[in-house]
Amino acid sequence: MRAPFVLFALCWSLSGAAGPDSCIACHSAIEEGKGPASIIKNDIHISHGLSCADCHGGDRTSEDPEVSMNKAKGFKGRPARTEIPKFCGACHSNPDYMRKFAPRERVDQLELYQTSVHGKRLASGDIKVATCIDCHSVHDIRAVKDSMSPVHPLRVADTCSHCHSDKERMAQYKIPTNQYAEYRTSVHWQAMTKRGDLSAPSCASCHGNHGAKPPQVESISEVCGTCHVLFEQLYNRSPHQAVFSTAGGGGGCVVCHSNHGIHTPDTGMLAGPSSICAPCHDAGSPQSNTAVQMAGWINGLDSAIKHSETVLAEAEKSGMEISEAQVRLLDGRENLVKARLALHAMQPEQMRIPIDAGMTVARETLQAGQAALRERDFRRYGLGVSVILIAIAILAIRGLIRRIESNSDTAQDSAD
């Protein structure tokens, strides 16, 4: 039994550590910078004063491995994969313990995980599913707000894709593996990565994190509605709500907008070759005609506002005062947004209200811009006429001066 003690003593002397943490001292010497002891310095537990023994048990103050790794001292060692959630939950489910370190931290993660698809499969013996360490890492667990954390908003989709983009891994579950690729084409991904909006949705926003579960048919609009509140309220008043409900076949928002690859909506979704209405409504049907009409209204208002913007921009470039019209045009843009929003209720008479209001603004601002351009042209004409008259006056004065000079020369010659 002397061999383990000799090995430990060697590790301790090589580490040069004088502190009480025998775990780090020995592992630092054994691993040579390639193991837990080398990366644990970045771990959030370390920053709170915790260390190896707080998770793995044992006596970290003892230099004798037979003591430090003695089960009588609470040593747990490396947990089985099926035990990892409970292993982490021993602390993270204890509100009294967690309150000492992170008072606002939730303590229901284990409970939620057990309700998730991952948790249920793990409980049934499937060790391929994700556990705490697959998402949060192991010995270099970082705070969510840390940009290097695998569950940071900018990284969480990539973390999920490690499993969900693996065709071989997903084959036995019959789950497609294109979700991440589609998500990277979406408006949500663009908002997060291009505009820096960390509140933009990622996998966990819709599926949950610890209680991960695909949204069911009856809950899709509610899931989307957590962010898109007004859209959900209008959708719930639309004829589509009943059709897309569970009884009607289901689908909700994803029928029109898809799920992972959500792109910027446009009127091409209502009319034209890429219309999403076509699979349900035959061309020429009342519903299809209504969709075409709504698309025409939106396109018309958008074009009218852009025309006003162009005219006002030209007037501004010419130095004309058109600030009041520019401010007024903001109302037109707001009505365009309201019209696009009202579309989700599929009630043309309600959509017509912001369309008409927006068109009124577009006409008024266009007239203001055109009036400013007319005034500009009048000023230019007046300036041109003035320049010509001034030029004529200058020429006349110059001619008069020459005549006077000529008469003066003649008189001088006569006197001589």
Main pleated sheet: none
Number of strands: 0
Number of domains: 3
Q: DSSP helix count?
A: 23
Please compute the radius of gyration using only Cα atoms: 37 Å
Secondary-structure element pattern, one letter each: HHHHHHHHHHHHHHHHHHHHHHH
Overall geometry: elongated
Write the layout of secondary structure elements.
Blueprint: H1 2-15, H2 22-31, H3 36-39, H4 44-47, H5 52-56, H6 65-68, H7 84-92, H8 95-98, H9 109-115, H10 117-123, H11 132-136, H12 156-164, H13 167-171, H14 179-183, H15 187-193, H16 203-207, H17 220-225, H18 229-235, H19 239-243, H20 253-257, H21 286-317, H22 323-342, H23 348-415
Helix pairs in contact: 1-2, 9-10, 21-22, 21-23, 22-23
Walk me through the structure.
With 416 residues, this protein is an all-alpha fold. It folds into three domains: 1-78, no CATH class; 79-214, no CATH class; 286-415, Up-down Bundle (Butyryl-CoA Dehydrogenase, subunit A, domain 3), CATH 1.20.140. It contains 23 helices and no strands. The radius of gyration is 37 Å and the shape is elongated.
